[in-house]
Design goal:
- The chain has about 70 residues and is mainly α.
- Helices cover about 65% and strands about 0% of the residues.
- The protein has two helices and no strands.
- It is elongated and about 45 Å long.
- The relative contact order is 0.19.
Amino acid sequence: MNALLQFFAYEHLRDQALRDTSKRFHDLAHELAATLPANAESTTALRKLLEAKDCAVRAVLFKQPGA
């Protein structure tokens, strides 16, 4: 298993919106890890997916300044 998959865990999140958002990325990460050949490019794909997940979670948490 790819070591990066640990960072796609979502079960610990209390907020349902964060769990739902993170779960989508978790599911895709596990599918990619299971189907892509194990090489540098698949690792990069997972790393970039992790970056995207972090951005999506921050989007859910975002508060408009001054709101």
